[in-house]
Amino acid sequence: MGGGNKANWDGRKILTGQSGPLLHHYFFLIFLMRRSTLLAWLKYYFPCGRCECFGWSLAIVIFGTMGFCFALAICLETYYNIEQVPPLRGSGSDFGIPVYNDWFNTLYVSENIDVSYQERNVNEALQSLQNSTNSFTFAGGEVYWPPGTELMNNTLQFPILGASVLMVFNIDSIPVNLNVSMDVLIEIYNGTISRWNDEKIQQLNPLLSNSSFPSDEIIPLHYLRDNGATHIFTETLCAYSEWWCKHVGVGEKVPFPHAKDSWFPVLDDYDMLESVLQTPNSVGYVSFPTLESFNAHVFTSNFTQLAICTVIEDHKCANSVILDEALQYASLNAFVVQENGAAMAPPFNWTCEDCWFFNGFTYWYTEEQYSESGCNSFISDLFELFNWIYTNPTAMDEAQAAHFVLLQGETWNILQSNFNKISCAKSVSSALDHAFFIAWLVVMIIFLIFTIVICIRLLWGVNKKYQRIRSNPVTFSLQSEGPMEVTPLLMKAQIDCNDIILSDQIGTGSFGEVYKGGWKGTDVAVKRMLLGGEANQRTIIEDFFQEANLMSTLRHPNVIQFLGASLIKPHLYIVLELAERGSVYDLLSRNDVTLDYNKKINFCIDAAKGMLYLHSSAPPIIHRDLKTANLLVDQNWRVKVTDFGLSRVVDTQSTMTHCGTVEFCAPEVLKRSRYTVKADVYSFGICVWQIFTRSALFHNTPLYQLMRMV
């Protein structure tokens, strides 16, 4: 059955909170209206002298606008709820996602069932399920709910795709499969065994000479993001070792005890195999379907595997097991599906001579109850979906083509009692009636309070900004853009643009040009902002004022001296002292300039002094674009730090952004993690290297490769 127009609209849900899109529409519209030209114009142009008239007018405008938005939101909500069937929309693990996509495309064409799926962190996906944002979630393994979790009691699970996980390694001197025991595998991943020539590994592989085992350090690779292979891998190690359960745990992402910064961050399954191929002495784990797909479609390679030694006699491996497709099929078909939706593995026999232990299933999670609107049609579509997956030969063929195992046959008969628990949420008419009345009352009170607060805040802000406008010529010059924040130091450093003489251009960028010029008989450097089109003017002007405000507060011998600024549009100039010898980068690039050891040392010392001054400010200032091109040299060979267009004052509450030049960026900046002044220390290290070698550290390296290397 398809997702047609079958549901009934219940108007009471609009104000009782059961209808989610209403609040989204409403607050979105309020945001647009609050940013509208009308309110911006009122806020900017009405002076405090007309407070009484303005206050009443503004209150009427805001209250009327909010009422209009609310009425419009109800209309939108009515449109979205009339005769709409909730779609089958889900998110979660990427484990098995090629099969999901094939299934959903086939279902849409043959059964007219519309299913959408998005790869996402499993914990976030389960939260979306609880918030009714999604109707189902895929997980790479059975979820272990924390005690007392509300979602645990209201969620049903269904095992879908099965796969096995194997371990691959890369040692040039060992082109054959290598035997390891479960104990050795755990010791490799907890750091107890750190080198390939460890005695325990050699004893398990008596057919290989000792010289075949390199003394290099073992590099265990792991996934940086949630991954179903990690769930199966850790679940098996936990079943074998109590230590692993206690110290590492089970899940799609776990804190590996031997994790190092030097480990290559693996994002997905193909990434894991590429990393093993490109990283000598590495070992990693990956699902069998991924290995087969990689060999078939990406890069054909005979990966060497870690064989699991199940029988050990006199420290030597007497029996080892290697995974292949037949063994995967036999291992996963030994699972027994329970009525509660759990796929139970047979008891582990760690001495079995033909068993593979690293096996598991992906799980479909869905809630027991759904809201009334379109619920019956929704459950009907969901039934057709499950019935198709567990009984249709096409579903089996598509799973097998991707080298996954799908349990059909009696599985659907067993799981139907689990599916029958899904029902539509019951409504209590009287409770909804009371909720409808209370919701109206609460909404009106909130509107009234909101209007009063906004009026008071706007009146106070208008008065304060008007006083600043009257005494501040800068804001008058930029009235088309709105007033700008200007520090007292910058106000005192204003320069008449007619006093600035521009001569030769000495530099250029995306939003500005740098000229050699004169000001009151002094040679200076003048940075002129290029305003460009109307769309970007506001951003460029804000960046100009941010840089000028910051530079006006800086005073240090190794920081370029700020002399003043012209703040009247369109002549937005920053006047700086002139560094006659140019940048350190230019000097390093010139063959006619001789730089002895003392000069290079002094360059580094001067740059360090300037950066220490910035980092010692209260609060500290992060440069974020430190490079040799931003280190200027004056007539006396003194280095001065410049270009603060990307600099920022440290704010612990703000989100860090990716700024600066990639070659000089610290790893935490490239990964968009939180960073501190230490990011500048990394850039300083690159500068020191470039000063002493007079060459680029990453010469002719492609950008994507450079980011992965860093």
UniProtKB/TrEMBL annotation:
Q: Known InterPro entries for this protein?
A: Kinase-like_dom_sf, Prot_kinase_dom, Protein_kinase_ATP_BS, Ser-Thr/Tyr_kinase_cat_dom, Ser/Thr_kinase_AS, Ser/Thr_Kinases-Pseudokinases
What PROSITE patterns has UniProt attached to this entry? PROTEIN_KINASE_ATP, PROTEIN_KINASE_DOM, PROTEIN_KINASE_ST
Q: Does the keyword Transmembrane apply?
A: yes
**Residue ranges of the TM segments:** 54-74, 437-460
UniProt entry tagged with the keyword Magnesium: no
The alphabetized UniProt keywords are: ATP-binding, Kinase, Membrane, Nucleotide-binding, Serine/threonine-protein kinase, Transferase, Transmembrane, Transmembrane helix
Which one Pfam family would you cite for this protein?
Answer: PK_Tyr_Ser-Thr
UniProt-recorded Gene Ontology molecular function terms:
ATP binding; protein serine/threonine kinase activity
Its protein name is Protein kinase domain-containing protein
Where does this protein come from, organism-wise? Answer: Vannella robusta
Q: What is the lineage of its organism?
A: Eukaryota, Amoebozoa, Discosea, Flabellinia, Vannellidae
